[in-house]
Specification:
Layout: H1 10-26, H2 45-65, H3 69-89, H4 94-110, H5 127-136, H6 150-161
Helix pairs in contact: 1-2, 1-4, 2-3, 3-4
């Protein structure tokens, strides 16, 4: 008997690695980026820090569990970017800003922004099964040949003759 772990993919492992960083930062297990100090100018520091810890931990948990993954990843990436930009604007280090930009890129990669056309191919079904199923549906339309330019040739012929 073989064990099959279909959830172990490069995307899921990357997501786990990136989100584990944000969970550790929000729980203050490691020193991280300046995200937790983002609300210090607006609120008293203890309140601002606790609020940002809760926000980062909640967003990381949402991304990890898959609930509202895209929205949570976008919000967390915006929080990281603006906190890092504010720290850079206040005389911070450009290398820390660059590191945070890499974190934003990793968050956007884990958000899984794939369009329906970019879905993974279902290799368990043969191409004959897919074609037969598509032909059997009443809404089936034959694919358009991208190299067929006969409709435009008539227009060019009319333009040349006129």
């Amino acid at each position: 008997m073989t064990l099959s772990f279909k959830w172990i993919t490069p995307t899921n492992l990357t997501r786990l690695l990136v989100i584990s960083y944000f969970i550790a930062v929000s729980l203050k297990l490691i020193d991280g980026n300046s995200t937790l100090q983002m609300l210090n100018p607006v609120l008293p520091p203890p309140v601002a820090e606790r609020l940002m810890q809760g926000l980062v931990l909640t967003l990381a948990a949402l991304i990890l569990t898959g609930l509202a993954r895209r929205t949570a990843a976008l919000v967390l990436s915006l929080v990281v970017f603006f906190a890092s930009y504010a720290a850079l604007y206040n005389g911070g280090d450009i290398s820390a800003f660059w590191r945070d930009l890499a974190l934003v890129g990793a968050l956007l990669m884990t958000a899984n922004f794939r369009s329906p056309e970019d879905r993974d191919v279902d290799w368990s079904r043969s191409t004959d099964d897919v074609q037969n199923a598509a032909a059997a549906s009443k809404d089936y339309q034959a694919p358009v040949d991208p190299l067929d330019d006969s409709a435009f040739r008539d227009d060019f012929d009319m333009a040349r003759s006129g």
